[in-house]
């Protein structure tokens, strides 16, 4: 039973990272109590104590502010029950209940994380639980405790491994149904990555993280590195300090409504042209609905929302890795005719503040002949006045941040450049907006994919020009062209600030890069093919394997695989009735006896070979010589082993041939 | 010595057969028992030549020989000896009994009381005698040949099953064949012929022969067969009492000695079969009323000689 | 009610007949595909519930790994059936026989279980419903003997009813079982009465109850005689030596038993079973006293003798008196 407790701990351990901390001491106390019971030092808790414990648990649950119904609440409740159950495990039945809940919890944990490591850990948990299940069912008296634990675990490993092929077949063929109802996944899921607002300093924070944001596989040619602008959100509204999407904050549902009404995607507003770029992206769990594509994504596969700003967005905040297939045409002209609503959004500025910048804009615009010249002048200004690109810009205060950057500090990250550039455009009456997303990515040659990390986060701008629609302008390139060509690491190399805070990062050890990339490639495969296997994938796979998807054909195919696995099990487990193999000499001797019996010399079971040979030789004088020699050789093999038994066995065969 | 062993054995058998006419099988078994260093039980009606065989065996081996006729008033002390009061010295001195000999013939063992029987059987088992707290080792080799009348005869104390187990081999000579009987009637008396026997073996030669017995090879195939036999006797439906591990050991040892007698370096199933009835007959008790010997013969007929896996 | 019971009985009989046909009785039976039945256990139903829940969870959260756990458990459930089945398949049961017993006592069947050379078997359960059950593993041992007891009613032959061999190994998610009819029978001796009727067993013309005296014995003191050379020191009558200065030797006698007869016709009481019970008691008593005795039954005489085998013979005769042998 102590192994049951051990298995429980194995199952509960990973939850500690995701669930309320007060659970930890509760579990420890329960485990400690259980150990004392097992050691005989304490008795099973009485009913009063049990009720008290349950009350405490439920109370803790209510107090910890978990939302009902939610995954967290369910998991916490299950864990509590799981732990408390161990206090009253007295019979085999109780133990089995605990083990079954354990199986459930192993699966439940995958709702929190689906990483490769978590999956491997889940496998270990499965083995331990199955081993304990075997152990609970029967005690083998011949084994010591240690022996039986080792034996049971080994058996569990074998059984689970043998299950894998069948599991995979079911995995591939089992019908995927759309969710029946929806349970809010998390009460307080952490959000990572890009947010829907941008204040000076926000993107720098991302720039210091080497977490993965998403991975992309290209179906055709990979665009050049400086073409890889992964658009996430468009920020239209500036309040003097912070850039946001709209003049007020929308929650997910309001945003959805907007994306379906006035801010909806209108494909007729773009003129598709140029070469397509087809790709598949797998986004990491971010807790946010944003997806990142090369703008504009003309064809998109998957259940997503799209907006008037050519964004692609998930229906829900991502609680699990998300797969998207898209085809983008980067050369497409967007919004050649700009709707009034969007124009207003793209020109809005706070009524006051940043006076110096406004004046600068008006002056420059006057001097410039056209909008294009004006844009070039602004960009040239960044370059000529020796603006500095840095991960550690000075703080700018709350007011007149654009002025502070443009005239005083002149040091900033992409957000500073993008924000001030758009400000200057709008101040000069040119529609412009900030775009946030990621730029570039790291090419993984092992896995043939592009890995985009948080430090690839970037902000750039779009300017609307008559006759051309929205044109992408990245003011950062004016100060630090290497940021776009080679990435952030190269751009801030002189400064030495790249990932300065993560001392232990594997990135700091170039010699580990190969290993890191390999590992990353495996993880990507995992994401792409295992986690991303959904209804569409299933249909595509079956289609490519079977041609069409008639029910009969799929059933036949699946049935065939089932049968093959069943047969494999039969063979692998030696279930086909295998008789105890008899040594070849005995087999030959039996055939010898059969041959003689046909001629009338029958051997009784109790007749020794020598005695029988004597009898048979008398009965069949013609064969006497052969019979005698055969018997002699056979006796030799059986009772006085010769140096080379194989030669003797061959001799037996020859002699047998003579008799037949 | 090794090369001479077959010749020695042949010579010994020749001498014995001269005296015991027409009983080659039994004579060989008796010698087998001697070579396997076990004790022999001869069970027959009076006058079948039991005593002659015992005499002949002792004689041909050149061993010291004593004979005691067991009667109902035989005391243990009459066998193993006693401390005797010597009036001159006023002290007790141990006078060894007839059991202190290399070949001891216990004639009509089942006529003595259980107490006397036990005394002998204990001496046989332990190969030593304890009298008044002192232990006296028996000579080596120590070979007991006991004869007994069939149990149905009146006035006997049959040996308990547990004590029969002490005898390696039980034999009965049976009536002589007509030819031998004719010779006997013509005056070819075994007892008279004893005097003309040559002594072929001596103590050291016998010991050397005995030491060869364990070296006779037994393969796994053979042991498989032996185990099949033993397992069969242990089926409760066949036997009331199966072959004990000691019995199994006796079977193997006897088969080795028999193989040596046939001048073979390895044991064949025939060897096992040859000794099986004599070794197992008195150790197993059948469910039905059949005698142990009959049962042993049935078992031999039923257990397959051939078979077994490899590895 | 009676008609319902009749139908049930008829069904039971039909089922038994079918089972017998499928599982003919033999001394040794090797369990093979045809003989093994297998069904999922109640525990398996529980696991099916867990699997279903996980499947729902997988659907709702569109989580591949949850699907995987659910399918993995399903595969385990299926694979386990093979394992459980294999744990029974190839097992050979050989009836070693039934120990004789007295009526009303438990008859003990001895069965040898042996496994195929390359397999090991675990947690095999042999059972007679409501009577006895035993669990064994065949791991290091190739063959193991197991004893099971079954109550008996009357004397005669005891034929063991069908024996259930089952296993839930390894995970308890499936139960495999088979019924074995073993073709053995055991003797059931008559139930011995508590105390035997006294006059029975009077010797035929005997003198004393103890039998004939045998001089020179060792058991009972009988007198003193002059010392003879060779008499042991334990037998010297030292008290007399002290008085007279002469050595005397104590003598002892043993008693040779004479033959006792247990005779059916001499019994005064009526009734076959009562008489047999009395004779049974007497056989046991005489055996314990190590006496020589014979048995006379109508149509059967067993000559006097002693020892285990003789006792067994006598008891067998009593057990099978009037029983038609098969």
Describe it for me?
The complex is a heterotrimer of chains A (660), B (311) and C (326). In chain A, α2 (23-39) packs parallel to α4 and α22 (609-619) packs antiparallel against α23 (624-639). The model of chain A has no long low-confidence stretch (mean pLDDT 83). Chain A contains 24 helices and 20 strands. With 660 residues, chain A is α+β, with helices and mostly antiparallel strands. Chain A starts with a helix and ends with a helix. The longest helix of chain A is centred in the first third of the chain and has 29 residues, at 145-173. Chain A folds into three domains: 2-173, no CATH class; 197-504, no CATH class; 584-659, no CATH class. The radius of gyration of chain B is 20 Å and the shape is globular. In chain B, α11 (245-261) crosses α12 (269-280) and α12 runs antiparallel to α13. Helices cover 44% and strands 15% of the residues of chain B. In chain B, β6 and β7 (134-137) form a beta hairpin. Chain B has 13 helices and eleven strands. Chain B folds into two domains: 1-211, 3-Layer(aba) Sandwich (Rossmann fold); 216-304, Magnesium chelatase subunit I, C-Terminal domain (Helicase, Ruva Protein, domain 3), CATH 1.10.8. Chain B has a five-stranded parallel β-sheet. Chain B has a two-stranded antiparallel ribbon with strand order 3-4. Chain B has a two-stranded antiparallel sheet with strand order 6-7. Chain B has helices spanning 5-19, 24-35, 50-61, 76-80, 114-126, 161-164, 178-185, 190-194, 203-212, 220-233, 245-261, 269-280, 292-302, and strands at 40-43, 65-69, 81-86, 91-96, 103-107, 128-131, 134-137, 143-148, 169-171, 239-241, 285-286. In chain C, α2 runs antiparallel to α3 (64-88) and α5 packs antiparallel against α6. Chain C is α+β, with helices and mostly antiparallel strands. In chain C, β6 (121-128) and β7 (132-138) form a beta hairpin. Among the domains of chain C are: 23-187, no CATH class; 212-256, no CATH class. In chain C, the strands form five sheets. Chain C has a five-stranded antiparallel β-sheet. The longest helix of chain C has 25 residues, at 64-88. The model of chain C is unreliable at 200-212 (pLDDT under 50). Chains in contact: A-B, A-C, B-C. At the B-C interface, β3 and β11 of B face β3, β13 and α6 of C.
């Amino acid at each position: 039973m102590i192994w049951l407790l051990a298995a429980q701990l194995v199952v509960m351990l990973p939850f500690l990272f995701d669930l309320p901390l007060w659970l930890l001491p509760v579990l420890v106390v329960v485990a400690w109590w259980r150990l004392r019971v097992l050691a005989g030092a304490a008795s099973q808790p009485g009913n009063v104590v049990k009720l008290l414990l349950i009350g405490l648990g439920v109370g803790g649950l209510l107090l910890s502010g978990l939302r009902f119904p939610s995954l967290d609440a369910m998991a916490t409740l299950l864990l509590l029950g799981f732990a408390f159950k161990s206090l009253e495990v007295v019979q085999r039945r109780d133990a089995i209940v605990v083990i079954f809940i354990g199986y459930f919890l192993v699966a439940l944990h995958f709702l929190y994380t689906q990483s490769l490591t978590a999956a491997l850990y889940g496998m270990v948990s499965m083995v331990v639980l199955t081993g304990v299940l075997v152990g609970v069912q029967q005690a083998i008296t011949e084994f010591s405790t240690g022996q039986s634990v080792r034996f049971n675990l080994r058996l569990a490993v074998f059984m689970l491994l043998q299950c894998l092929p069948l599991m995979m077949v079911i995995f591939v063929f089992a019908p995927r149904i759309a969710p029946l109802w929806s349970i809010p996944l998390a009460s307080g899921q952490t959000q990572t990555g890009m947010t829907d607002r941008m204040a000076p300093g926000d993107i720098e924070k991302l720039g210091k993280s080497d977490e993965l944001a998403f991975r992309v596989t290209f179906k055709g040619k990979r665009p050049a590195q400086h073409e890889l602008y992964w658009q996430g959100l468009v920020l239209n509204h500036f309040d003097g300090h912070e850039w946001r999407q709209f003049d007020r904050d929308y929650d997910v549902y309001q945003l959805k409504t907007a994306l379906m009404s006035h801010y909806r995607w209108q494909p007729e507003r773009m003129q598709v042209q140029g070469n397509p770029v087809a790709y598949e992206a797998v986004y990491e769990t971010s807790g946010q609905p944003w997806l990142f594509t090369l703008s504009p994504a003309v064809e998109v596969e998957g259940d997503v929302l799209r907006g008037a700003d050519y964004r692609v967005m998930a229906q829900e905040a991502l609680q699990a890795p998300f797969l998207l297939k898209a085809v983008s045409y980067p050369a497409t002209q967007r919004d050649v005719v700009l709707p009034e609503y969007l124009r207003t959004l793209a020109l809005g500025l706070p009524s006051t503040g940043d006076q110096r910048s406004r004046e600068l804009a008006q002056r420059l615009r006057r001097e410039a002949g056209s909008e294009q010249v004006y844009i070039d002048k602004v960009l040239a200004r960044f370059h000529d006045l020796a603006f500095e690109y840095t991960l550690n810009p000075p703080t700018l205060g709350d007011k007149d941040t654009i002025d502070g950057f443009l005239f005083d500090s002149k040091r900033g990250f992409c957000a500073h450049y993008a924000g001030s550039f758009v400000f200057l455009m709008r101040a000069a009456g040119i529609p412009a907006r900030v775009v946030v997303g990621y730029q570039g990515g790291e090419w993984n040659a092992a896995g043939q994919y592009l890995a985009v990390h948080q430090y690839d986060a970037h902000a750039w701008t779009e300017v609307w020009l008559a006759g051309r629609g929205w044109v992408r302008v990245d003011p950062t390139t004016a100060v630090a062209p290497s940021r776009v060509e080679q990435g952030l690491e190269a751009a801030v190399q002189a400064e030495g600030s790249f990932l300065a805070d993560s001392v232990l990062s594997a990135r700091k050890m170039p010699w580990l890069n190969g290993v890191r990339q390999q590992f990353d490639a495996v993880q990507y495969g995992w994401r792409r093919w295992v986690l991303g296997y959904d209804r569409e994938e299933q249909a595509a796979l079956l289609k490519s394997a079977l041609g069409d998807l008639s029910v009969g054909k799929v059933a036949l195919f699946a049935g065939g695989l089932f049968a093959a696995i069943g047969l494999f099990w039969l063979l692998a487990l030696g279930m086909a009735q295998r008789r105890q193999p008899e040594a070849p000499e005995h087999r030959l001797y039996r055939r010898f006896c059969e041959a003689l019996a046909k001629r009338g010399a029958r051997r009784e079971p109790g007749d020794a070979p020598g005695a029988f040979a004597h009898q048979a030789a008398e009965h069949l004088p013609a064969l006497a010589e052969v019979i005698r020699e055969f018997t002699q050789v056979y006796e030799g093999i059986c009772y006085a082993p010769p140096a080379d038994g194989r030669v003797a066995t061959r001799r037996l065969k020859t002699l047998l041939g003579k008799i037949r | 010595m090794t090369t001479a062993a077959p010749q020695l054995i042949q010579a010994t058998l020749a001498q014995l057969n001269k005296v015991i006419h027409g009983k080659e099988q039994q004579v060989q078994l008796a010698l087998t028992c001697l070579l396997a260093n076990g004790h022999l039980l001869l069970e027959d009606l009076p006058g079948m030549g039991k005593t002659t065989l015992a005499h002949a065996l002792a004689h041909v081996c050149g061993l010291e020989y004593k004979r005691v006729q067991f009667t109902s008033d035989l005391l243990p002390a009459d066998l193993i000896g006693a401390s005797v009061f010597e009036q001159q010295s006023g002290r007790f001195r141990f006078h060894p009994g007839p059991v202190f000999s290399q070949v001891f013939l216990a004639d009509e063992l089942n006529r003595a009381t259980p107490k006397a029987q036990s005394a002998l059987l204990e001496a046989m088992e332990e190969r030593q005698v304890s009298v008044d707290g002192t232990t006296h080792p028996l000579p080596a080799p120590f070979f007991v040949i006991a004869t007994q009348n069939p149990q149905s005869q009146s006035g006997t104390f049959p040996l308990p099953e547990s004590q029969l187990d002490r005898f390696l081999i039980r034999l009965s000579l049976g009536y002589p064949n007509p030819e031998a009987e004719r010779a006997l009637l013509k005056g070819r008396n075994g007892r008279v012929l004893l005097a003309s026997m040559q002594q072929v073996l001596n103590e050291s030669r016998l010991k050397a022969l005995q030491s060869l017995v364990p070296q006779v090879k037994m393969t796994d195939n053979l042991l498989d067969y032996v185990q099949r036999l033993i397992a069969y006797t242990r089926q409760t439906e066949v036997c009331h009492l199966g072959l004990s591990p000691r019995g199994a050991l006796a079977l193997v040892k006897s088969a080795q000695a028999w193989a040596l007698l046939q001048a073979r370096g390895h044991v064949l199933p025939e060897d096992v079969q040859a000794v099986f009835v004599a070794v197992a007959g008195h150790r197993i008790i059948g469910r039905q009323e059949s005698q142990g010997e009959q049962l042993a013969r049935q078992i031999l007929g039923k257990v397959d000689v051939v078979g077994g896996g490899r590895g | 009610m009676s008609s319902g019971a009749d139908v049930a009985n008829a069904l039971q009989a039909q089922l038994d007949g079918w089972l017998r046909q499928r599982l003919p009785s033999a001394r040794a039976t090797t369990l093979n595909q045809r003989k093994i039945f297998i069904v999922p256990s109640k525990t398996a139903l529980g696991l099916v519930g867990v699997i279903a829940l996980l499947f729902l969870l997988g659907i709702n959260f569109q989580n591949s790994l949850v699907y995987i756990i659910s399918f993995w458990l399903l595969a385990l459930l299926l694979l386990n059936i093979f394992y459980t089945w294999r744990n029974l398949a190839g097992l050979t049961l050989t009836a070693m026989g039934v120990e004789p017993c007295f009526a009303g006592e438990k008859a003990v069947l001895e069965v040898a279980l042996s496994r195929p050379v390359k397999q090991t078997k675990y947690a095999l359960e042999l059972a007679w419903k409501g009577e006895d059950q035993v669990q064994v593993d065949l791991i290091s041992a190739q063959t193991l003997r197991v004893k099971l007891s079954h109550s008996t009613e009357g004397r005669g032959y005891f034929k063991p009813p069908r024996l259930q061999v089952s296993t839930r190994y390894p995970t308890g998610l499936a139960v495999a079982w088979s019924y074995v009819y073993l073709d053995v029978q055991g003797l059931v001796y008559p139930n011995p009465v508590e105390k035997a009727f006294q006059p029975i067993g009077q010797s035929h013309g005997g003198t004393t109850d103890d039998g004939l005296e045998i001089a020179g014995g060792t058991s009972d003191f009988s007198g003193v005689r002059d010392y003879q050379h060779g008499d042991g020191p334990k037998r010297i009558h030292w008290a007399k030596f002290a008085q007279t200065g002469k050595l005397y030797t104590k003598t002892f006698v043993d008693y040779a038993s004479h033959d006792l007869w247990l005779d059916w016709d001499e019994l005064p009481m009526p009734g076959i079973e009562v008489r047999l019970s009395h004779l049974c008691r007497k056989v046991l008593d005489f055996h314990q006293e190590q006496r020589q005795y014979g048995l006379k039954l109508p149509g059967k005489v067993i000559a006097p003798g002693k020892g285990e085998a003789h006792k067994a013979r006598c008891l067998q005769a009593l057990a099978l008196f009037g029983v038609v042998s098969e």
